[in-house]
Automatic annotation (TrEMBL):
Coiled coil: none annotated. This is Cysteine-rich domain-containing protein. Residues 205-290, 337-412 form the Cysteine-rich domain. Keywords: 4Fe-4S, Iron, Iron-sulfur, Metal-binding, Repeat. Pfam families: CCG (PF02754). It comes from Thiolapillus brandeum. One of its GO terms (molecular function) is oxidoreductase activity.
């Protein structure tokens, strides 16, 4: 580049994802755009500390004959794509050249396009298809007898070595346990419940259970229901639910995302029409409905309706607090809390609502850590990436160690477990909703 221009001071905006256009899958055009964007990233390098995608790119450039992007073999561009797990932080927190800047840089969605092109041309590894099958695999693993066997095998070092050698799932990575009684069997529908409106909220919520919350840690949803009902907010559950689509999005399987959308959106839109707000306890799922689906289907009115009525649970409670409707009669302090701020919550542009709410609890000190844990749902469990994920989580673990907290928490449950794994000192990760329930003493 002949000159460096100043970044835009205007608020970032996002273009719709033109994924149905045949040009979207033109690999030659994709590589040309990747070269353009990589050249700008090489001249800037602000994002070098966010994840491993940018160090991979810059190493390729620095080790090339020209020490410029034109010296990098385009076959190696895919190494950069492999390390991007679509956290979106570069777009929202670092890059000065995002739209409406004339350079029009959207690095995460360029990587998403690359993943989609690769998936269309080459498909996916068996391991990656299994890891992203968050609807089908839990149904099998959640059968009462099977759940116990699967959990026992996943805790067996010999089996984990076999799993690593056959499927490429790292033997040291944390794998979630399965439950034989999913959340959807624990929360009863309340079709006739009434809520008290406050601010933009109706005061009654339908819980999108999420794959993880339904099949792996249903206590998260139970804690959420207890806290919300303690605040006079009835909680029901959607009649039908599929995976939000985020694992398939990260794989580049956009058709699978569309199929999940066709199940979820009509159900959630119907709940909204009946006066319910939607909440989901996993930030990635909320982001899927708030951002990714609206960008994939910008003209779908029901998609936009769900976007405008789905909330992060702590965002929802703080909106109630702003309207004077939050119960602040806390019975127990929480002491010192190390709170890892999930990337997919940070990029929702709602502010740090979890920290704000936990700080309302008397005699509670919250240390907020705004740095990626390196987990990303599947990235940290893959053999070829696990060591890198452990390197990425190390600064987070170091901050926790220095703070010496009574509790470790993250809205991203898997990130919390990954941090606890890195600490290896007996401190377990807890969802912040569990901490809030403990503070209420309910």
């Amino acid at each position: 580049m002949s000159e460096r221009r100043e970044g835009s001071l205007e608020a970032p905006t996002r273009h719709a994802l033109d994924w149905k256009n045949p040009d979207f899958y033109d690999e030659e055009k994709l590589l040309t755009e990747m070269e353009r964007v990589f050249d700008i990233c090489h001249g800037c390098r602000r994002c070098v500390s966010l994840c491993h995608a940018f160090p991979t790119l810059f190493d390729l450039v620095d080790e090339s004959d020209t020490m410029e992007v034109d010296g990098v073999d385009k076959k190696d561009y895919w190494k950069v794509v492999d390390h991007c797990y679509l956290c979106d932080l570069c777009f929202l927190t670092k890059c000065p050249y995002v739209p409406p800047h004339e350079w029009n840089i959207d690095f995460p969605h360029l990587m998403l396009q690359a993943k989609a092109v690769h998936y269309k041309n080459h498909g996916a590894k068996t391991r990656d298809r299994i890891l992203s099958a968050t609807d089908t695999v839990p149904k099998l693993a959640g059968i009462p007898i099977v759940a116990g066997v699967v959990n026992a095998m996943n805790a067996n070092p010999g089996f984990r070595k076999l799993l690593e050698n056959t499927l490429g799932v790292d033997h040291d990575a944390v794998i979630p346990k399965y439950t034989s009684k999913p959340l959807r069997k624990r929360i009863q529908p309340q079709p006739d419940a009434r809520g008290e409106a406050a601010g933009p909220t109706t005061g009654k919520v339908a819980l999108f259970a999420t794959c993880y919350g339904n099949n792996n840690q249903p206590d998260i949803g139970e804690d959420l229901a207890a806290v919300f009902e303690h605040n006079g907010i009835p909680v029901t559950i959607a009649e039908k639910e599929r995976c939000c689509g985020m694992p398939k999005l990260e794989l580049g399987d956009l058709e699978a995302v569309a199929k999940a959308k066709e199940v979820n959106i009509p159900q959630l839109a119907k709940m909204i029409d009946n006066g319910w707000d939607i909440v989901a306890p996993i930030p990635s799922c909320v982001l899927m409905f708030k951002q990714e689906l609206p960008l994939m289907f910008p003209d779908d009115e029901e998609v936009l309706k769900v976007r405008d009525h789905i909330y992060d649970p702590f965002e929802y409670l703080m909106l109630r607090h702003k309207a004077g409707k939050l119960n602040t009669d806390f019975k127990n302090s929480l002491g010192k809390v190390s709170y890892h701020v999930a990337c997919h919550q940070r990029v929702q542009r709602i502010g740090n609502k979890t920290r704000e709410l936990l700080q309302l609890v008397p005699d509670t000190e919250v240390q907020a850590i705004e740095r990626c844990s390196g987990h990303d749902g599947t990235y940290a469990v893959k053999k070829e990436f696990h060591a890198i994920s452990m390197k990425l989580v190390r600064p987070v673990a170091r901050k926790v160690q220095q703070f010496e907290p009574d509790h470790l928490t993250s809205d991203c449950v898997m990130a919390g477990h990954h941090i606890a794994h890195a600490l290896d000192n007996g401190l377990a990760a807890e969802h912040p909703m569990k901490l809030l329930r403990r503070a209420y003493g309910i």
